[in-house]
Write a structure and sequence with these properties.
Pfam family, one: TPR_19
Structural class: alpha/beta
Largest sheet: 5 strands, mixed
Order of helices and strands: EHEHEHEEHHHHHHHHHHH
Mean pLDDT: 92
Keywords: Disulfide bond, Electron transport, Redox-active center, Transport
Organism: Caldichromatium japonicum
CATH architecture of the largest domain: 3-Layer(aba) Sandwich
Family: Belongs to the thioredoxin family.
Protein name: Thioredoxin
CATH class of the largest domain: Alpha Beta
CATH topology of the largest domain: Glutaredoxin
């Protein structure tokens, strides 16, 4: 066994502190192995080499399943070697068998923090603060330093949207990698872009409010007002308008009221109190 600070022997006694709690600080790669397992012995030096090479970006925890049968049972280990990656106390990925070094490296790269992660966060902070000049400069720097960072295409969409380049942002979201297609953040961005598109040729918010006050049946004014509210963060106000549209005019925009509410739920996230409350109200209005 290596004496590397990046490799530990995990047992029932230390598993909670070293593996589960430790995975909140950095990814933990758990290698379930046994002395009699020839593929395990083939994989061991590869894992040890990568643990040292990555210098603490992940911790390698080795579990001897002959000695730690309860841990093997707890994690559903049925064949050896089995390698599981834990983050925030949960198994997020795994592989079985003695993979070659290139495949193990590719497996790790999907999950390990990158040196450019901090730079990506600064881009997003600048976008949120409305400092688009800084955001663009930081984005270009991130693209130069780490062109393969998986979040760069998504950040590009956010930057284009924040800059008001709606057509370009929609084109960019269509070019996103397949693995990002069902990402909740992508669904939220797609919804925001649709709302931005809805008001590109619309009158101002004040004029729309006057129109709606004069004619509560004006579905276009109601929907466009909701779009303005979404883009300035008044999600509850937007949901009220869209809920009223669901009640009054399901035909408008091919059920735009319901679709708009679902888009806001994506923006808020499924666990948000506002999303839960209005989802229930929407279901009541529909049925």
């Amino acid at each position: 066994m290596s004496h590397s600070p990046h490799i530990v022997v995990a047992t029932a006694a230390n598993f909670q502190s070293i593996v589960l709690e430790g995975s909140y600080r950095r990814p933990v790669l758990v290698d379930f192995w046994a002395d009699w397992c020839a593929p395990c012995r083939m994989l061991m030096p590869i894992l040890a080499k990568l643990a040292d090479e990555y210098q603490g970006r992940f911790l390698l925890a080795k579990v001897n399943t002959d000695e730690e049968q309860a841990l093997a049972f707890q994690f559903g280990i049925r064949s050896l070697p089995t390698v599981q990656l834990l983050r925030n106390g949960q198994v997020v990925d795994h592989f079985m068998g003695a993979l070659p070094e290139s495949q193990v490296r590719a497996f790790l790269e999907k999950h390990l923090p990158r040196a450019s992660d901090g730079l990506i966060e600064r881009v997003q902070d600048a976008i949120s603060a409305g400092d688009l000049a800084s955001a663009r400069a930081l984005f270009e720097r991130a693209r130069r330093e780490d062109p393969d960072h998986k979040r760069l295409p998504l950040i590009e969409v956010q930057l284009l949207a924040a800059s008001g380049e709606i057509d370009q942002a929609q084109a960019a979201i269509g070019r996103l990698p397949l693995e990002l297609t069902n990402d909740p953040e992508v669904a939220a961005l797609r919804g925001q872009l649709n709302f931005a598109q809805a008001i590109r040729q619309a009158p101002g918010e004040t004029e729309l409010a006057v129109r709606l006050s004069a004619n509560p049946q004006d579905s276009e004014a109601r929907y466009q007002l909701a779009a303005y509210q979404v883009l300035r963060g008044d999600y509850e106000g937007a949901l009220e308008h869209l809920l009223e549209l669901v009640r009054r005019d399901r035909a408008y925009g091919e059920d735009a009221g319901r679709k708009g509410m679902i888009a806001i739920f994506d923006i808020l996230g499924s666990g948000h109190e506002l999303a839960a409350r209005y989802r229930a109200r929407m279901m009541s209005a529909l049925y």
